[in-house]
């Protein structure tokens, strides 16, 4: 008996798991690790990640050890079997059901246990299941979307103690029996090939006629990528047998972790006398369709994989060749996406900068008072000469220093404009310039928790990465699950876009800024959307040598002194001292005039 404390990904620790190990499984179709627990002849699965880590799979009978076969195709189909039992799960153990035994459309037994047979070997592919019993019987069934059942073929002499089953293709089954050679230590194999479709033609089996003549789609056995806020459109063609109304059914593996939802629309038309049905399948994450509780899906930050399967509801067992259509879905980054900064009115367009000069090995100086090579906002020890990479950045955007500003970010895919990005993003001047701030603070931005900033991010990343703020480590201060206390509401709020109107505010300084931009919104795209761009800030007058306060005091004092002198001088001229002074200036003027005349030879 084991008692296991299971770690979880940041939500809470699940209670102690009591039971014995039945196995540990990597479920790719759920992006989970599953732990099979057995306790008192009952078993259940426990899972590693949100949201399945908060609950268990439904318990099922486990009175003896079961072999577990994972069917191919990444659909999450598990087959549990022992000599006296056969169970199937279509969702990686969350729900485990018994396999029924049928005769035609009639259910003979709800489980293999009641059929009183002894299973010797089991084989499965993406759609089919075969069972060989010690009673020398062969059972065959389909692994349908809705239910799984078996029918018994006519008695055949095919069983031996060493015999095993294997599917070689859809509807093609082989029974392999090793043959000993008394003279040689190697083995040969006897192969018994069975065409399932031919066997089902036996009228005693009452298999019924398949209601669908054709089911095909170009997406079969292909791989697609679906990014956040993206929608995948698939099409298929179905031709029903005349007089029948089959119902197409689409299923998606990994719905809990991805919140993927597929919607199928059927459009019927007639061509060459046959009624055909065009099936249009739209696939998108429920998280972005607004049709699911956010707690239903797993961490939206984590990319994963899934499969989508198109099949027919309640499909007859005779539809052997009509296998389901399956495609692999990579829910992750669309590598064709990139972000571009809109630059319709550049500094070159307005004649502020010369594009020829920028391309001619142009460089500029950043004064030591304006930058910090360590990106901590501290003054550097010397000026910095920067070479401008025109071939990478082109001509800079133009921004007036006294108007709050933010870039217009565009999303492009395969060279085509998609939309203006409204998601949250961050900026950082790549040369360490700190002569700008933001129009909002943590308090005015409405933060309920202390927001992240470049200082905290770089400290967390260490010296390995200066520009390491992205969707993987971003936490919104508006997220109710982010519990960092709001201790400093007056610090600048460094996140742009999203639900706030935050903007960049430049200091009174002209010059070029080279910005790194990163989309940090974890719900916008699985890609790390990053780029660099440049801005030329203009319109700032040179800073005064003296502080403004001193300049204002001196101007005020000079004005008051001028007014006082303009009033006092006329008053003083009418006094005795004023008359004497006036006579002194008159005599001085006459002497100077006489000296000047002698100098020019007029004495």
Automatic annotation (TrEMBL):
Pfam family, one: Ig-like_CATSPERD
All copies of domain CATSPERD/E C-terminal, residue ranges: 361-577
GO biological processes: flagellated sperm motility; sperm capacitation
Protein localization: Cell projection, Cilium, Flagellum membrane
Primary residence: membrane
Domain CATSPERD Ig-like: 212-331
GO CC aspect terms: CatSper complex; sperm principal piece
Record's keyword terms, sorted: Cell membrane, Cell projection, Cilium, Developmental protein, Differentiation, Disulfide bond, Flagellum, Glycoprotein, Membrane, Signal, Spermatogenesis, Transmembrane, Transmembrane helix
Residue intervals passing through the bilayer: 550-569
Topology of the protein relative to the lipid bilayer: Single-pass type I membrane protein
Chain ranges of the CATSPERD beta-propeller domain: 14-192
Keyword presence, Repeat: no
InterPro entries for this protein: CATSPERD/E, CATSPERD/E_C, CATSPERD_beta-prop, Ig-like_CATSPERD
Family, similarity comment: Belongs to the CATSPERD family.
Function text: Auxiliary component of the CatSper complex, a complex involved in sperm cell hyperactivation. Sperm cell hyperactivation is needed for sperm motility which is essential late in the preparation of sperm for fertilization. Required for CATSPER1 stability before intraflagellar transport and/or incorporation of the CatSper complex channel into the flagellar membrane.
Name of the protein in its database record: Cation channel sperm-associated auxiliary subunit delta
The organism of origin for this protein: Bison bison bison
Organism ancestry: Eukaryota, Metazoa, Chordata, Craniata, Vertebrata
Gene label: CATSPERD
């Amino acid at each position: 008996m084991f008692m296991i404390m299971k770690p979880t990904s940041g939500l809470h620790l699940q209670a102690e798991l009591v039971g014995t190990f039945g196995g540990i499984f990597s479920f790719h179709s759920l992006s989970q690790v599953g732990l099979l627990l057995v306790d008192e002849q009952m078993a259940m699965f426990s899972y590693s990640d949100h949201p399945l880590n908060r609950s268990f799979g439904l318990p099922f009978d486990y009175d003896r050890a079961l072999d577990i076969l994972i069917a191919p195709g990444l659909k999450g189909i598990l087959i549990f079997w022992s000599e006296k039992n056969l169970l199937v799960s279509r969702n990686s153990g969350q729900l485990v059901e018994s396999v029924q035994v049928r005769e035609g459309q009639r259910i003979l037994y709800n489980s293999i246990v009641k059929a009183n047979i002894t299973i010797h070997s089991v084989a499965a592919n993406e759609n089919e299941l075969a069972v060989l019993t010690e009673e020398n019987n062969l059972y065959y069934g389909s692994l349908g979307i809705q239910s799984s059942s078996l029918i018994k073929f006519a008695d055949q002499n095919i069983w031996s103690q060493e015999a095993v089953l294997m599917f070689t293709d859809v509807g093609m089954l082989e029974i392999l029996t090793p043959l000993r050679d008394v003279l040689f230590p190697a083995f040969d194999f006897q192969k018994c090939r069975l065409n399932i479709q031919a066997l089902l033609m036996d009228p005693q089996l009452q298999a019924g006629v398949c209601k669908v003549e054709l089911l095909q789609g170009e997406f079969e056995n292909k791989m697609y990528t679906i990014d956040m806020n993206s929608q995948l459109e698939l099409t298929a063609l179905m031709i029903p047998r005349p007089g029948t109304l089959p119902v197409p059914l689409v299923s998606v593996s990994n719905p809990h972790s991805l919140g993927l939802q597929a919607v199928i629309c059927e459009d019927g038309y007639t061509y060459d006398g046959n009624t055909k049905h065009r099936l249009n399948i739209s696939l998108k994450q429920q998280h972005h369709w607004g049709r699911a509780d956010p707690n239903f899906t797993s961490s939206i930050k984590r990319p994963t994989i899934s499969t989508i399967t198109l099949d027919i509801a309640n499909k007859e067992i005779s539809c052997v060749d009509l296998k389901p259509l399956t495609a692999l879905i990579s829910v992750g980054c669309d590598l064709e996406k990139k972000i571009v900064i809109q630059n319709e009115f550049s500094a070159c367009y307005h004649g502020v900068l010369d594009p020829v000069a920028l391309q001619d090995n142009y460089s500029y100086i950043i004064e030591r008072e304006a930058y910090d090579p360590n990106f901590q906002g501290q003054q550097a020890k010397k000026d910095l000469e920067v070479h401008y990479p025109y071939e990478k950045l082109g001509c800079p955007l133009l921004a007036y220093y006294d108007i709050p500003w933010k870039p217009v970010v565009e999303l492009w895919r395969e060279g085509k404009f998609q939309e203006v990005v409204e998601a949250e993003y961050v900026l950082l001047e790549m040369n360490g310039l700190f002569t700008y701030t933001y129009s909002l603070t943590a308090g005015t931005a409405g933060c309920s928790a202390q927001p992240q900033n470049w200082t905290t991010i770089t400290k967390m990343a260490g010296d390995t990465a200066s520009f390491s703020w992205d969707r993987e480590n971003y936490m919104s201060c508006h997220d109710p699950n982010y519990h960092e206390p709001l201790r400093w509401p007056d610090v600048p709020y460094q996140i742009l876009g999203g639900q706030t109107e935050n903007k960049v505010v430049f200091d009174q300084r002209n010059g070029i800024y080279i910005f790194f931009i990163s989309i940090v919104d974890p719900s916008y795209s699985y890609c790390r959307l990053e780029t660099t761009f440049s801005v030329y800030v203009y319109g700032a007058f040179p800073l005064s040598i003296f502080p403004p306060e001193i300049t204002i005091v001196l101007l005020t004092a000079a004005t008051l002194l001028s007014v006082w002198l303009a009033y006092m001088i006329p008053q003083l001229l009418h006094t005795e001292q004023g008359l004497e002074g006036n006579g002194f200036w008159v005599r001085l003027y006459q002497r100077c005039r006489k000296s000047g005349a002698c100098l020019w030879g007029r004495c």
